[in-house]
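Sanity check

After download, print the first record. It should look like this:
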Amino acid sequence: MSNATQSVAAARIDSLLDANSFVEIGQAVTARATDFNMTEKKAPSDGVITGYGVIDGSLVYVYSQDASVLNGTVGEMHAKKIAKIYDLALKVGAPVIGLVDCAGLRLQEATDALEAFGEIYLKQTLASGVIPQITAVFGTCGGGMAVVPALTDFTFVEEKKGRLFVNTPNALEGNRVEKCDSASAQFQSEETGLVDGIGTEEEILGQIRTLVSMLPENNEDNDSFKECTDDLNRVCDDIAGCTGDTAIALSRIADNGEFFETKAAYGQDVVTGFLRLNGASVGAVANRSESYDADGNKTEISDGTLSARGARKAADFVKFCDAFEIPVLTLTNVTGFKATLCNEKMMAKSVGEMVHAFASATVPKVNVVIGKAYGTAYVAMNSKSVGADMVYAWDTAEIGMMDASLAAKIMYEGADASTLNEKAAEYKELQNGIASAAARGYVDTMIKAEDTRKYVIGAFEMLFTKREDRPSKKHGTV
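Expected structure tokens:
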């Protein structure tokens, strides 16, 4: 390493990578600007350490900004070093991880810094869908630098010192940081949909290591498997009680109970994340109506509907999985769309994005209906009609237009209670029952909840060689 070996930036790399695996690139690079007495200022490695190493034996490229050098500002050579790392990563097909701690663009280098910084945007765009990109923010990430994590696939922010913003809170009309700290890790995690996780520096680096172990190295990597030490036919005895918090249900299905949730604090009515099934990585999307903390206490209850944020979260996740040939599993338990003014502003657009993501994805897609599946919200959740390859349903599930009682009230308006109850029961049997959906081919197999793991593993193994052609086009517009 450079003479910044003992810096915080270098220590972060050491903590992230396997021991003694880091090889630095561009150690001797420094700023070449001379204006405003820049020649008198020392800038070892121009404020960013770049190189490569391994995580659990898998190659990754890393850059780590050093706030002790010119406040971690991005100058011309600083940006070019990051761009060079992207060039190498694209050539060999390996993920890029950025450890950000930056005071912004270097004013003394002006247009040179801007031009070089634009190269980072370009390289990130070229790398999108080709290699996984991960950003972790440990200090300031503001202004144009905030676009960098937005162009990556996964973002983590240190809970106390991490600051992520385009405009600082005090620059927003009518706002002060004391009123609403829009740059905080909590705000970015809960409100923007950009942040996948927050925590201490140690926790974030650990989360990144776990995430990398779940992901392929690139979009052509067909060897991202691990030996499965779990029983493929394991019965999930308690999964029927997990229909509320499907993050727990997914952990019951997963190999060795390991499920990695993404964007947990955003759009909490939808769960997204990764698990392994028979050693293969699978992306999961599930409806959620309850949340629990680490101590098992219920922290959130919703009405079982799909929100605009949840739909947007699902869409982004499915697009990532499709780009990297990661199969998608959905657990469906939804009664409709969330009816609030805030949600209505983006509902149609967000649900459209989700439908487009599911329908256009050509990876293996398996859906399990675990509860109520009503209306077009059910259709949007990876139903058979929008392209699911296999659809299972628990024998206790319901599929239909709406709740049977409400349907009876609409069809037999003004009828007495006895008639409404009779018609509701009839509607539930004829229209909402799983048997009726299976008879029409909308459900492939009715299963018991405890058998879910073995059925989805079998489905994905059967679909392993799936090939699906789509109309030739440059790209969709949704």
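If your output differs, re-run the checksum step. Summary of this record's structure: Residues 1-5 have pLDDT under 50 and may be disordered.
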